[in-house]
Please model this.
Amino acid sequence: MTAVDFASLLCSRLCHDLVGPVGALYNGIELLADEDDPEMRQRCIELVADSARQTSAKLKFFRLAFGAAGGFGAEVDTREAQAALEGLYAGDARIELGWLVEADSLPKGAVRILLVLAMTAGDALLRGGRLSVAAERHAGGLELAVRAEGARVLLDDEVRAAIEGRTAVEAVTPRAAPGFLVRCLVDEARGKLKVSAGDGMLVFGVTLAG
Model:
């Protein structure tokens, strides 16, 4: 698989995630154009505003998690990462976020790993729950951890295989592309990644050298 092929897979996944809020935005505008009742127009406006907020939040998250983050140097302000993650789940009352990152900044690659794993863990919270994100610098490098806890936590087998490096390059799908990206970033940083799942809990642990 070429770099272009992989970029296409990621684009397919991101477009899939954007179809919902963008479609709702379009529908809201159509309804608003045809509606004369003041109360219904107000509801349409609220629908459009909410869909626009969701779309904007997803785009900001995707830019930082999957893009080149061109507005930053080698290090990314962790407040930007926190805001991106909070924006992604702002409209989902089922998920409670915990941000346990004290460092003011982290390497760009580490931020991407942390955000993509957080998104993956959030997807695994089928009935909602708590999503905790942590990072700690130490003399030997950097420790990252993402924990999902809920009534039903299920990590897709295809996604897990990609994260753990058990997926052949030619077998990567749009669903597993973010996980494959995480594996590539961890390997590039000469790091280690561990996945633990069971009993209503999913934990990603990453150790990065440097």
User: Anything to note?
Assistant: The chain has a mean pLDDT of 89. Strands lie at 75-77, 95-101, 105-107, 129-138, 141-149, 192-197, 201-209.
